[in-house]
Amino acid sequence: MLPFELIYHTRYDLNLGPHVFPSQKYRLIREQLLADGIATEEDFVAPEIPADEEILRVHSEDYVHKLKTGTLSQAEILRLEVPYSKELVEAVWLAAGGSISAGKCALADGFAANIGGGFHHACPDHGEGFCAIHDVAVAIRSLQFHKAVQNAMVVDTDCHQGNGTAEIFSGDASVYTLSIHQENNYPFPKPKSTVDIDLPDGIDDGDYLAILEKHLHRAFEDFSPGIVFYVAGADPYREDQLGGLKLTIEGLIKRDALVFDYARRHGVPVAITLAGGYARQVTDTVQIHVNTIVAAREAKLRELTRKN
User: Which of 106, 50, 47, 101 has its CA nearest to residue 263?
Assistant: First the structure.
């Protein structure tokens, strides 16, 4: 068994077929975690669909109404870049519930992972870039509303800047947003995060890790979060179809370990969401996401060993 919980629902898979967004990866991640003996069935917890009031702490009433009633304009659907359906709405509500659950479980156990979510391009009044609801923002606002935390940090290592995250938390001193991403890539424009690390095309493992560590050090010096939401994109991988960075699978493992080490060194629980990943071989994307869970397990086990 894992020393923390995994949040998952079969409805995360939208069965999009040959779409560049491989929603089948969620099911495949679960299957690989079980097949490799990393997790057992008992490690998986199903999320609940959150009440609309949870979503409305982040998104506008008009946008939520359009999503739930199927009245988005054609332009709004095109901006989403995934087909609209009632199944999509259920999936993104479940993903938000999954990130709320991951936050609660992380506060109790030190780590938790939503095998889904990380939809960081969703903005208060619209969705874009495969993201309809900003599950991480919904989770942070829920934890704050229920007095579980005061301050939160988002560490976003997806290849694409978290523009929705930046917009939602703009001017909010209670949430520190750090995004490390490829500068010459979607989205355009990029609203300002607390810290934006704009990387050049083709950066490799060594330079990436050195830059990330420098900014993690500074972030935890400048801010004391009650929880870290780690948006662990697989798309900095060198074989990603929508990315232009050159990280190896080994480099991405080191990236995950670095984030977890800084968070736990400062005694901060970590809620993981898996975000983007569009490798030419979906098996690579799945492996990268599985490796993130393994890195969290190793970080947690090291912590338990030190305590004993």
Answer: 106
Separation of alpha carbons 183 and 244, rounded Å: 10
CA distance 112 to 104: 8
**What is the distance between the terminal CA atoms of the chain, rounded to a whole angstrom?**
19
**207 contacts 163 by C-beta, under 8 angstroms:** no
Q: Which residues contact 243 (CB under 8 A, 6 or more apart)?
A: 159, 160, 182, 185, 235, 236, 237, 278
Q: Residue 249: exposed, middle, or buried by beta-carbon count in 10 A (0-12, 13-18, 19+)?
A: middle
Return d(Cα 294, Cα 137) in angstroms, integer: 25
What's the farthest any 2 CA atoms get from each other in the chain? 58
pLDDT for res 192 = 98
> What SS3 class is residue 128?
strand
Locate 226 and state its tokens: 């009650």
pLDDT one-digit tens code per residue, 274-293: 999 999 999 999 999 999 99
Tell me the C-alpha distance between 135 and 93, whole Å.
Answer: 8
pLDDT of amino acid 184: 98
Cβ within 8 Å of residue 173, ≥6 positions away: none
Render pLDDT for 84-133 as a digit per residue (tens, 0 to 9). 999 999 999 999 999 999 999 999 999 999 999 999 999 999 999 999 99
